[in-house]
Design a protein that fits this description.
It is a single chain. The strands form two sheets. This protein has a six-stranded parallel sheet, with helices on both faces. Strands 6-5-7-8 form a four-stranded parallel sheet, sandwiched between helices. Helix 1 crosses helix 11 and helix 9 crosses helix 10. The longest helix has 17 residues. The chain is of the alpha/beta class. It binds D-glutamic acid (DGL). The site of D-glutamic acid has 16 residues, from helix 3.
């Protein structure tokens, strides 16, 4: 296999990172993806920073040992906690989703008032505020923690194999009266607190699935942006600079690994988010993920 044909490693706490993987697969159709979803330990957003940092290193070492050419941390929470250490410790380049999300927000805002909707841990670290203000120190950033959203998404996704049919028949399956109520309750500090944001960045890769009720709550004057496109652009630029873009002759092969004990559920929900069937899924135990590995420098 050519060096440039090695897969792109993509990591998330569960299924949310597939929103980013889907964008990569569509935009860079010759690239192969090796996706790891740590579903068993999801959600990360309510855990401590130290714990999430150690999970990032485990997944990163695992992906590096499986010969990926680059790693994307497709989880804002994991990026906030572990991007820096992963970049220092892993033998491959590592990209997070927060700097790309910050760029998307800066490109969108006109009033320089931006809301960040994210897990409690991501908001607590202040990583988005730093990333946005590194680009424009005059932007006011309003963090809005959404502790229940990941569980809502994972719960809807767990309803199984009929998601696609239900979406086709009834429209957005996530846009239910109950979800609208919970989204309104969560966004209240942002909309009634006088922040007057014109842009809200979805600072969690699960949240694009709740874009329906989020847009409904925020109304037509607020733009809702996420990091998938910007992350894919950054990925393209890095691979291109390193001469590692897969050639047009390469046939993409996507593989998926999960710590979930329910592969059928991961397959059904994952295929729905990824937009195509997840053909090759393997189970990895937490022990396998946590096995110490020899670092393989020189990639
Ligand atoms: N998808 C992850 C993110 O982007 C968070 C999910 C979790 O809390 O595990 O932040």
């Amino acid at each position: 296999m050519l060096d440039s044909e090695r897969p792109i490693g993509v990591f998330d706490s569960g299924l949310g990172g597939l929103t980013v993987a889907r964008c990569i697969a569509t935009t860079l159709p010759h690239e192969s993806i090796y996706y790891v979803g740590d579903t068993k330990r999801c959600p990360y957003g309510v855990r401590s920073e130290d714990e999430v940092r150690s999970f990032v290193l485990q997944a990163g070492n695992w992906l590096a040992a499986h010969d990926v050419k680059i790693m994307i941390i497709a989880c804002n929470t994991a990026t906030a906690a572990g991007l820096r250490i992963a970049q220092q410790m892993l033998p491959v380049p590592v990209i997070g989703v927060i700097a790309p999300g910050a760029r998307a927000a800066i490109n969108s805002t006109r009033t320089r008032k931006v809301g960040v909707l994210a897990t409690p841990l991501t908001v607590r670290t202040g990583a988005y505020t730093r990333a946005i203000q590194d680009l424009d120190a005059g932007v006011n950033v309003y963090g809005c923690p959404a502790p229940s959203f990941v569980e809502i998404v994972e719960r809807e996704l767990a309803t199984g194999a009929h998601l696609q049919e239900r979406w086709l028949q009834n429209g957005d399956v996530f846009d239910t009266p109950e979800n609208r109520m919970e989204v309104e309750r969560t966004l209240m500090p942002l909309i009634s607190g006088g922040a007057q944001v014109d842009t809200v960045v979805l600072g969690c890769t699960h949240f694009p699935l709740l874009a329906g009720p989020i847009r409904h709550t925020l109304g037509p004057d607020v733009r809702v942006v996420s990091s998938a496109e910007e992350t894919t652009r950054e990925l393209h630029d890095i691979l291109s600079r390193r001469n590692q873009l897969a050639p047009a002759s390469a046939r993409a092969e996507h593989r998926f690994a999960t710590t979930s004990d329910n592969i059928a559920e991961f397959a059904a929900a994952g295929s729905f988010i990824f937009g195509q069937p997840l053909k090759s899924i393997e189970h990895i135990s937490l022990d396998e993920l946590n096995q110490p590995r020899k670092p393989c420098f020189g990639a």
